[in-house]
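[audit] Reproducing an earlier prediction to check determinism. Same input, same settings, fresh worker. If the tokens differ from the archived copy the diff job will pick it up downstream; this log only records the rerun itself.
[audit] input (174 residues):
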Amino acid sequence: MDTNLENIQEQINQKNDHDDQVLSFILGREEYGVDILTVQEIKGWEKTTAIPNTPEYVMGVINLRGAVVPIIDLRVRFGLDNITYNESTVVIILRAEDESGSQKIIGLVVDGVSDVYSINATEIQGSPDMNGTIHTDYVNGLATVGDKMLVVLNVNQLINEGILASIKKSLNAE
């Protein structure tokens, strides 16, 4: 793991002290962010075990210390151009809660992690309602960090309704 990734992982490990921290990552030409409290860890890309009859954005599963974790290519899920995986490709392991309160763990393949930002909740502006590839239900809002715009994702919505619900629907359709 390179030094930047180690520094970001260290900031994630200290996440209990800060509730307004956002881990940013690169996907295509855009920068996205997730609440750091939802991040369990960041891993380098590794081969997955494919699962038949799942949507194309489901890369497969990995064994993470005894837990089977589905790995999602967020680029494919958001309808962006495909990219070849390289040394900067990482998997962000996220935790979400479903309506019953049970924890779901999922890995998102992204082009690379960028930084950890402190963003006050009042600085996050609502996202405009557009018919783009990313459903606005999965977006908490937009934050300006320096000279760039950061799309802050709603991890619970993205994982539960945007990913797991569609996987379940595709498996039930078979």
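[audit] rerun output stored. Observation attached for the diff report: Strands lie at 21-27, 30-35, 39-44, 58-64, 67-73, 90-97, 103-110, 112-118, 139-145, 148-153.
[audit] end
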